[in-house]
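Postdoc handover notes: sequence design on the structure in folder B. Input tokens:
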């Protein structure tokens, strides 16, 4: 199973930018779809973005479309989430997940991911 470690979170002002990284170890991520989810206390973990194992156009939640960009670098075994024009509503713990569920629509589902990182806190001040 692949192990994931997120980094890059922190405190940022509204309108600012942040770049999250998710470094994988134990296995190459080449055959994994990768996703970013986020969670605030008391809420379920929600989908943010995902990219398939073949690296085609990423999928985004409507709430982040046009502001966030997900990418992957298989050579570095790392995926990224570039967050621009952040708002206080983006405040959450952000988790990276790895999935080998290739069924249609799987990347949007939490239970499709077999590995998760420990999360990185993103706080956006107004």
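Designed sequence:
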């Amino acid at each position: 199973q692949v192990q994931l470690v997120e980094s890059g979170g922190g405190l940022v002002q509204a309108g600012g930018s942040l770049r999250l990284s998710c470094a994988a170890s134990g296995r190459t991520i080449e055959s994994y779809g990768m996703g970013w989810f986020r969670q605030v206390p008391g809420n379920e973990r929600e989908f943010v973005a995902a990219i398939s194992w073949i690296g085609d156009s990423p999928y985004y939640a409507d709430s982040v479309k046009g502001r966030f960009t997900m990418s992957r670098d298989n050579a570095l075994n790392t995926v990224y989430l570039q967050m621009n024009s952040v708002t206080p509503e983006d405040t959450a713990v952000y988790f990276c997940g790895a999935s080998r569920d290739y069924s249609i629509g799987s990347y949007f589902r939490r239970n499709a991911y077999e590995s998760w990182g420990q999360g990185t806190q993103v706080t956006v001040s107004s």
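Context for whoever picks this up: The mean pLDDT is 96. Don't rerun without checking with the PI first.
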